[in-house]
Amino acid sequence: MEFIEVNTNELILLSVTGILFLIQVIYYLALYNRINAHNKAARRKKVSFSEELPPLSVVICAKNETENLRNFLPSILEQDYPEFEVIVVNDGSTDESEELLSLFARDYPHLHRSFTPENSRYISHKKLALTLGIKASKHEWVVFTEANCHPVSKSWLRLLARNFTPGTDIVLGYSGYERRKGWMHKKIAFDSLFTSMRYLGYALARKPYMGIGRNMAYRKELFFQQKGYSAHLNLQRGDDDLFVNKIATKKNTRVETDVNATIRIRPVQYKTGWREEKVSYMATSQYYKGSQRFMLGFETFTRILFYLAAITTITFGILDKHWQVAGIGGSLWLVRYMIQAIIINRTAKEVGENRRYYFSLPVFDILQPLQSLGFKMFRIFRGRQADIMTR
Predict the structure, then answer these.
(1) Is residue 274 domain-shared with residue 313, that is, in the same domain?
(2) Which pLDDT tens digit goes with each residue over 204-244?
(3) Residue 140 and residue 217: Cα distance in Å, rounded?
(4) Which alpha helices (H) appear in the chain, and where do they start and end?
(5) Is the same domain home to 269 and 312?
(6) What are the residues whose beta carbons fall under 8 Å from the beta carbon of 146, sequence distance 6 or more?
């Protein structure tokens, strides 16, 4: 086979594309594949679990959530667990939530209710509601989820509790949206999956940096040791990600990613709801300690550069009729795509997602950083003061 002589520009492009390719592959194999590797190790009994099932408390904050409570609360109340209580804090609901909870309490004696005082309007209501729920809890371990969520099985609490080892203070779990038809729902589902691969992957790498309050647990004494949410009480959000960022260490945090420990979220009806959620987490992420935020930003940056470098290499190769150059650039893109597709779709299967990403994967791969940029611009134009509560 006759090899062509490449020019300096093509050699530089090939070198840059190759380096970016290696960086991307390292991220996928070393970080994004963590859930797959963890579940495989658990099935091979290479992960140690506790056999004790200590009593625990489930805390839920609800504001005008009658429909969600009616549909989803029974799946929590009917968990296959020896001793647990469920505390629902009614955060000033004006619908029929209180009446519904009263009806549920007749059939479920382990359901308890609380409420936020009316004069608390200048404090982050969700943080106050969760604080009241934690204070009302009787047990050492507190599990958190939300009113629009439901566990996929009755083993949810058992699977979380098997991680309550003596050295563990925090357990993080996976949550994903219920499947709905349409491009928007597929895009949101992919974003949720990829976000989980990031923060749960880092936690499995013993570098936890955040949690999501739809599926996590921690010791109650840890909450009071840290004086609750006092460190960021002036922010509307932060009850989950910022709190975990503050207290999580490489030794005190475990992850549960068994498919039966998954929490499903009711899909958003409008894109604005999802946008507000993303903007809120973006507002708190600037307060994260640790290098994880910057390392993930570096992955996104090198991802964009890889696409640009690969496309430029292929284009130059075709224009100069240097087919080997174009072939190398295309091969690097194809190999990365195959590694990415295998890891993302295996992870989706491991956590019970019934979507698969093949033809849509390159689109979402590029769309995600562009969306993040759009959310940042929206937050800037809206004004960052909206993130802060006035005392």
Answers:
(1) no
(2) 999 999 999 999 999 999 999 999 888 887 777 888 999 99
(3) 10
(4) 8-27, 34-43, 66-77, 97-107, 125-136, 156-161, 183-204, 220-225, 241-247, 271-285, 292-319, 323-350, 361-382
(5) no
(6) 60, 61, 213, 214, 265
